[in-house]
């Protein structure tokens, strides 16, 4: 490859502080397309799986980053969605169950010249990987996490997952599950993630818009993707996908816009709206025609206080999804863990430090002032 100009992806460079992520030079190397990010591996998901749509959207979107493939890495855990790195012609790692955020944290901290992505599922991220996920979110490591939520365990053939509705009858819960499900967006907002969004596998335009915003965000971006499993949980999202019901089921979130949904009225607004609930401090759904326009909640994704975003996230049905907010819930800036870690390392190393001095200081540190001989 030829020497390329540099793209500022918010990654200032590992050592010099002036190096940026190498851009793809379209003039010298040819334009990039989705095929450049498609590996030679056979895609092995079940026919009709929503993962195909997400994979195609990501492959088509990656050229828009303007980065070389060598500067993009995808890390996954275990599960159907975690086969993702095999199908992308970038660097990647199919790691261990639930630990992808931890591995990605190390990569992002050691290599700030990389665009780091995590692909995980509702079981991988929210069961065995739950602690790893929330700590990555609170630390605000510079990575993008795609959480595929099909509300079931697919790879192990149909057990209930941490997002399955209460009463779900599966092979592992023949009388119905007793667990109350996680709401991944609420969980992320509770961990004070700096970027939280939700989208749908079948809405290519919206999915791509959310991917672009998540990739541009400096810090941890959590994108929940509703994804249909046609074998073990088919139709879990029919209410928000069907042309007959989605207008009443999807609560679209657009920064700076009043939150309305449902069949549009004469003024173009949805027939229902969100207003503040004075009794609970949250939000409630009312008929748009029955309230003043000034009383309708205006979505503010940039509000540093996540309280309103959390309240909106609670409108997601815990059972069968008859309603669900879709869009970017929160997008705020705060210091990232990896930036601060590199600053600490830089401060701990004196200027003009050489290897010999460093080795001597390390030996003195290990030796310490007091030693004991154990017999």
TrEMBL record:
InterPro entries: 2-oxoacid:Fd_oxidoreductase, THDP-binding, TPP_enzyme_TPP-bd. Keywords: Oxidoreductase. CDD domains: TPP_OGFOR. The keyword Oxidoreductase applies. It comes from the Bacteria. GO terms for biological process: cellular respiration. Pfam families: TPP_enzyme_C. GO terms for molecular function: 2-oxoglutarate synthase activity; magnesium ion binding; thiamine pyrophosphate binding. It is an enzyme of class 1 (oxidoreductase). Residues 78-225 form the Thiamine pyrophosphate enzyme TPP-binding domain. Its EC number is 1.2.7.11, 1.2.7.3. This is 2-oxoglutarate ferredoxin oxidoreductase subunit beta. It comes from Nocardioides cavernae.
């Amino acid at each position: 490859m030829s020497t390329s100009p540099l793209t500022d992806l918010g990654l200032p460079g590992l050592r010099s502080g002036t190096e940026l992520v190498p851009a793809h030079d379209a003039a010298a190397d040819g334009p990039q397309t989705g095929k450049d990010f498609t590996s030679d591996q056979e895609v092995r998901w079940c026919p009709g799986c929503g993962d195909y749509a997400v994979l195609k959207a990501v492959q088509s979107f990656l050229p828009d980053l303007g980065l070389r493939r060598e500067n993009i890495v995808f890390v996954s855990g275990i599960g159907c969605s975690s086969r993702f790195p095999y199908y992308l012609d970038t660097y990647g790692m199919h790691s261990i169950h639930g630990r992808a955020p931890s591995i990605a944290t190390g990569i992002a901290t050691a290599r700030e010249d990389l665009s780091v992505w995590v692909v995980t599922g509702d079981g991988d991220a929210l069961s065995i990987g739950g602690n790893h996920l929330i700590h990555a979110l609170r630390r605000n490591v510079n990575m993008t996490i795609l959480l595929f939520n099909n509300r079931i365990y697919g790879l192990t053939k149909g057990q209930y997952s941490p997002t399955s509705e209460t009463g779900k009858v599966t092979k592992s819960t023949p009388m119905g599950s007793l667990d109350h499900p996680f709401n991944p967006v609420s969980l992320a907002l509770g961990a004070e993630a700096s970027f939280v969004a939700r989208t749908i596998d079948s809405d290519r335009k919206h999915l791509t818009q959310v991917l672009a915003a998540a990739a541009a965000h400096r810090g941890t971006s959590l994108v929940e993707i509703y994804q249909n499993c046609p074998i073990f949980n088919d139709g879990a999202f029919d209410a928000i996908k069907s042309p007959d019901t989605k207008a009443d089921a999807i609560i679209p979130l657009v920064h700076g816009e009043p939150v309305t949904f449902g069949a549009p009225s004469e003024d173009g607004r949805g027939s229902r709206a969100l207003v503040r609930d004075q009794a609970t401090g949250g939000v409630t759904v009312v008929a748009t025609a029955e309230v003043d326009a000034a009383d309708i909640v205006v979505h503010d994704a940039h509000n540093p206080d996540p309280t309103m975003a959390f309240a909106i996230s609670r409108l997601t049905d815990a059972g069968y999804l008859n309603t669900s907010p879709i869009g970017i819930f929160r997008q705020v800036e705060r210091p990232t863990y990896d930036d601060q870690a590199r600053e600490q390392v830089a401060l701990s190393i004196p200027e003009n430090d050489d290897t010999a001095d460093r080795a001597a200081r390390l030996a003195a540190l290990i030796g310490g002032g007091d030693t004991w001989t154990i017999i």
